[in-house]
Design a protein that fits this description.
By secondary structure, the chain is of the alpha+beta class. About 40% of the residues lie in helices and about 15% in strands.
């Protein structure tokens, strides 16, 4: 198959060159002109933007203009690593970060995914890869980090799906079967060609299974950009990984942090989060009990049928005792899979496959949120989202929205082409996934995503505008991830005020706020919505996974600390400071860590403003995420809602009709959210419209002329 490739461009470089976690080099590729060149990462960029997502945001800013659309050739797709990427001594150190202009939101979107891609990229000699332009035909970018060459090659005969293609490429670019572990590829699939919901799969080789595994860069449609540029794959080959390849300044702090973290996981995980057995799916019944599980398009927070897909069900389906770390040395080993799963539908019907997952988002999204409690449906839908290169979270929330529209008569079988999309219609939901992935039937419409569908349903099908906007769970154009945040004001803010869109990787506060009651005041919520987004941003600068931080904790954490301080897990924070100091040789405290993040966080907010968003109106949560849209929802929690009206809102509900109570509750909850916005913006150093102030960017040290000009123009306009 490789003999059919035509090499369009070749570039030679000096391999390696990592020192103190950095190469200070980036690889630039223009697919329109087949240009490949090596560029320096300027000292100012390293100082101000640190690495990872920060590099991606800065270089994307340089590449695009305010009027740039996601499918313009000048839009870049950037893969980045951080200074801690590739550590083998500390769990969760293999993360790849990507940045591009999102097809769904029109603003920068960042993602992180596990696997070997970013470590191999860095060890080859590059802290990031910038891909610009559009190829005239499908091509692959191939990097050999040992021999020191890069090629752009045509890819005329390769598979078009993300299950078979990685298998082919690992074999094609390895130096024999034993070398397949030294290949990592980025791919997408047909679904990214036909929808705005495309993801990028990052591969790694599972030596025990003799099969490729995949992790995702999923939210906001990066795979759609990938395919629009004509990329079939990005392939990296690198052999020779060692524990010291990052060339740390001092290994002792790294060994100290890694030793105690690995001991903690190996000693406590089986009684704590069970990440090594089940992964993030361990939380299903916990979330159900706490009434925060998304059920039937977030109408409800629990369901008695949840026991059919609780964690012990997945324990029996997930293959146990396998090497389930997605980078070398990760003792958390949460990247599980279900082997020999027989498919009932689609192009691989009747075949037995390896399903990567399921993660919690899979179970809460494809399961309860669509009204399904069938593990087989969840696994099959999980597999085909990966196969077609579709963002599983977006597809889940989209299906839930379409099902509620169907049950309310907005959609009919005539519109859906015969699909019955009631909640729990599993086979029809699978058929719709196939249609989205293959670009046919109603799938061509559904693949536009909720934001555009709301407008279509209102204009074309005469749907009630308020109802559709209330139940369509998207913010900024991105579908909401899988937590029911009705009764957590802090989580509403965490979703809606996130720069890229409503993904919980920025602030997961629902337990602290709703379940444990640790954030009773607006000031408490604002403080949490300052600290946690900044702390979590730091992972994306470093190349780290968040799970070892907050899905494991020392045995004595809650004996030594309480409230927000306990939630920060101070010993883990100390670990990360040790890792950074050992790697770079520069001492770092918590304030310095947060300052690194804040520069990038505020810069991204201003990037949104530059692209036409980034203000208060863009941070609004659909009412389904704030409170009950329907009578059915109100009645399901009537005692709770009545109590809040009386005790918190000071409303006399005697004699009020159900509709009057619902209207009063809505007025109260929307008012509460506006007050939260005020408190959070003030705490973050933003103005009342949600824009970082001149004083803030000066304190950040990013008062570049173009940022100052942007803020001044907005202030004058406002």
């Amino acid at each position: 198959m490789r003999q059919a490739h035509k090499v369009l461009a070749t570039y030679s470089f000096t391999p390696g060159g990592v020192h103190a976690g950095y190469t200070d080099r980036r690889l630039y590729v223009d697919l329109t002109t087949n240009t490949i060149e090596e560029r320096a990462i300027e000292p100012m960029v390293r100082e101000k933007f640190t690495g990872g997502r920060g590099y991606g945001m800065y270089y994307l800013w340089q590449a695009v203009k305010p009027a740039t659309h996601w499918n313009d050739p000048e839009n870049e797709l950037i893969f980045t690593a951080g200074p801690l990427t590739g550590l083998t001594q500390y769990p969760g150190s293999g993360k790849t970060h990507s940045v591009t202009i999102s097809p769904e939101t029109g603003v920068p979107v960042d993602n992180n995914g596990g696997g070997f891609f970013a470590p191999f990229m860095k060890f080859s000699g590059f802290d990031c890869i910038e891909i610009q332009g559009k190829a005239a035909q499908d091509v692959m970018l191939v990097i050999d980090g040992n021999k020191g060459f890069v090629t752009i090659e045509t890819a005329p005969d390769e598979p078009t799906n993300s299950y078979d293609l990685p298998e082919v490429l690992h074999a094609m670019y390895a130096d024999g079967d034993d070398d397949r572990k030294n290949v990592s590829v980025a791919t997408s699939g047909e679904g990214a060609d036909h929808s705005l919901l495309g993801l990028i799969n990052l591969s790694y080789w599972d030596a025990k299974r003799k099969h490729t595994r995949i992790k995702q860069l999923a939210r906001g449609g990066p795979g759609t950009v990938f395919r629009d540029k004509g990329l079939r794959a990005v392939v990296i080959h690198f052999s020779g990984t060692t524990p010291t390849l990052n060339c740390p300044v001092d290994m002792e702090p790294i060994k100290l942090a890694g030793g105690r973290m690995n001991k903690e996981i190996l000693t406590l995980d089986h009684t704590h989060s069970r990440m090594r057995e089940i992964g993030t799916g361990n939380t299903v019944e916990i979330l159900d009990k706490c009434d925060v599980l998304p059920v039937m398009n977030y109408k409800f927070g629990s369901d008695p049928r949840t026991e059919k897909i609780k964690s012990d069900v997945w324990l029996g389906l997930i293959s146990q005792g396998m090497p389930d770390g997605c980078w070398l040395g990760c003792s958390m080993s949460c990247a599980h899979g279900v082997d020999n799963f027989e498919l009932l539908t689609g192009p691989l019907k009747g075949q037995k496959v390896l399903v990567d997952g399921p993660e919690y988002e899979t179970i809460g999204g494809l399961g309860t949120n669509t009204g399904s409690f069938d593990p087989h449906f969840v696994l099959e839908a999980n597999f085909y989202c990966d196969y077609y290169g579709l963002d599983l979270v977006a597809v889940s929330t989209l299906l839930a929205f379409l099902m509620e529209c169907y049950e309310n008569g907005i959609l009919t079988k005539e519109i859906t082409g015969g699909l019955d999309l009631h909640f729990g219609s599993d086979m029809d939901a699978l058929e719709l996934i196939h249609q989205i992935g293959e670009g046919r039937g109603f799938g061509k419409v559904a693949g536009l995503g909720i934001h555009r569908l709301k407008k279509l349903f209102i204009e074309e099908y005469h749907a009630d505008a308020q109802f559709v906007n209330d139940i369509g769970m998207e913010v900024k154009g991105m579908e909401v991830s899988e937590y029911n945040c009705k009764d957590s004001l802090a989580q509403q803010g965490g979703y809606a005020m996130a720069s890229k869109g409503p993904q919980h990787d920025e602030a997961w506060l629902i337990f602290m706020d709703q379940v444990k009651g640790q954030l009773p005041t607006f000031a408490d919520k604002a403080e949490a919505l300052s600290f946690f987004p900044l702390f979590r941003t730091w992972f994306s600068l470093m190349g780290l996974c968040k799970l070892p931080w907050n899905d494991s904790e020392p045995r004595d954490n809650h004996d030594r600390y309480t409230g927000i301080e306990a939630a920060r897990i101070p010993e883990h924070v100390e670990n990360y400071l040790l890792l950074y100091t050992g790697m770079t040789g520069h001492a770092l405290d918590l304030d310095g860590l947060l300052a690194q993040s804040k520069r990038v966080y505020d810069f991204q907010r201003l990037f949104n403003l530059r692209m036409g968003q980034g203000t208060r109106k863009d941070d609004w949560m659909p009412y389904r995420g704030m409170g009950p849209v329907t009578e059915e929802e109100y009645l399901s929690r009537q005692e709770r809602y009545d109590k809040q009206l009386v005790e918190a809102a000071k409303v006399d509900i005697a004699g009020m009709s159900l509709q009057q109570k619902m209207a009063a509750l809505r007025q109260y909850r929307e008012s509460q959210y506006r007050q939260l916005q005020d408190a959070v913006y003030a705490r973050r150093g933003w103005d009342a419209d949600g824009v970082p102030t001149l004083e803030t960017v000066k304190a950040d040290g990013i008062d570049f002329p173009e940022l100052v000009d942007l803020i001044e123009k907005h202030t004058h306009k406002a």
